[in-house]
Amino acid sequence: MNATTCIDEPSCDNGNADVLENNDFNRGISLMKQGIGNVLYQEKSYSMALLFYTEAIGLCPDSASYITKAKCHMQMHEYKKALEDARKSLALDPDSLQGHLLVATCALALGERDLADEFVHLLEAFEPTDDAESVQMKKVDEVYTLLREAESTFAKGQYFTTLRHLDRILERLPARKLKLHRAECLVMLEQFDRAYQEASDVLLLDKSEDDALYVLGLCSYYEGFLDLAVKRLRRVLKASPAHKKAKDILGKALAIKEKIEDGSRAIEFGLYRKSHRLFSEALEIDPSNRMNKMHLLLKRSRLSFKLGKLSDAVEDCSSALAMNAAAVEALLLRGKLYVALNNFPKAVADYETLCRVSDCYEYKLLLKHARRAMKQQQQQQQQPPPQKRKKSHYSVLGVAADASADEIRAAFRRKSLLHHPDRHVSAPPEAVKLQEALFKEVAQAYAVLSDARKRADYDDGRRAG
């Protein structure tokens, strides 16, 4: 009975042997598939290599294929998947230098700064075992250092320097997040076409990349297209509510947009001073946005024109032209302001620039009128000023031409007392000089009119000429 039972039922030892034999078989197949994946990896057939690495892991979950699979994802710029596999490799072997290098590289590529800081620090405890690992460690260190310098210079507004750092980083690690960081830098340098192209290229590869859409929103914001900027930035925040940069720019865009809309409504009701104040407040929200600043300066300049503040209006136009010397709207407005101020030479200069920028008949006509007005002004300035008619001795004393000697004497006494310098000692210096001149004039008039012969000669001269 017992013998039969032993024969019918397999022993535990036989079952363990079968399991061990099966595990060995799977491990062998796993190693074979990993080897095929390695060959395909060397041939740069990364998609095919991934299939074999995945199958190898399926057969033997504790295999080393996670490392090679992560490298394969990195070659395909799939850094999120590469990071996932690198973490799994470290779970199997926490002391793996390759695993630490992969996690650090992926963290840098994905812009996960805290994770990058952690693993770059951990790498300091490792020593490379061969030249390949030494090169990889050096590369991670260089990228980490350059990235910190790029972040520092970007925060300081040194965008050209940041761009150089990012170009050097991308030579070592061509990751999409880093390309988008460069695109953001290009926006700040107002190289909008290049920034737009780089962000669009990333979106073609990954439509869910919120940083790419953020760069497009940033382009719209700094180009002055506030409605489009708001639309794009809201899409970013819908996909990624914690996107800090998108929140910041959206807040500024909405604030500027609200001030402009309120200012425009105030103009419709003739509230020019209120509108002027609202545009001034909008200018203070983000002075770094040159395009919006230029538009707001021109809006405020027109209002200053309406309010009769011509000098303020000219100043705003000049500030706008300092940002773009060929701005047609600013040149046209400042030219009209100079005409209103009778500063025709400057008006002519602006209209000449305007005609070089735009071949428009209206601008040519304005230039023609300004030149004509300038010529007339110059002719008037060249004419000698009319001679000021000298006051007669009679009018100086305040008497009629037929006044008697007694009347002349009384008038002299009255006028001389009025203008005598001793009476004006405490007056300001200019007033003292004026009174001295008037007193001298009174004395000269009396010297002539009090002498009968001199008076007769004086009267003859007045009648003759």
TrEMBL record:
<protein>
    <recommendedName>
        <fullName>J domain-containing protein</fullName>
    </recommendedName>
</protein>
<dbReference type="Pfam" id="PF13432">
    <property type="entry name" value="TPR_16"/>
</dbReference>
<dbReference type="InterPro" id="IPR011990">
    <property type="entry name" value="TPR-like_helical_dom_sf"/>
</dbReference>
<dbReference type="InterPro" id="IPR013105">
    <property type="entry name" value="TPR_2"/>
</dbReference>
<feature type="region of interest" description="Disordered">
    <location>
        <begin position="374"/>
        <end position="394"/>
    </location>
</feature>
<dbReference type="Pfam" id="PF00226">
    <property type="entry name" value="DnaJ"/>
</dbReference>
<dbReference type="InterPro" id="IPR036869">
    <property type="entry name" value="J_dom_sf"/>
</dbReference>
<dbReference type="InterPro" id="IPR018253">
    <property type="entry name" value="DnaJ_domain_CS"/>
</dbReference>
<dbReference type="InterPro" id="IPR019734">
    <property type="entry name" value="TPR_rpt"/>
</dbReference>
<keyword id="KW-0677">Repeat</keyword>
<dbReference type="InterPro" id="IPR001623">
    <property type="entry name" value="DnaJ_domain"/>
</dbReference>
<feature type="repeat" description="TPR">
    <location>
        <begin position="63"/>
        <end position="96"/>
    </location>
</feature>
<feature type="domain" description="J">
    <location>
        <begin position="392"/>
        <end position="462"/>
    </location>
</feature>
<dbReference type="Pfam" id="PF07719">
    <property type="entry name" value="TPR_2"/>
</dbReference>
<keyword id="KW-0802">TPR repeat</keyword>
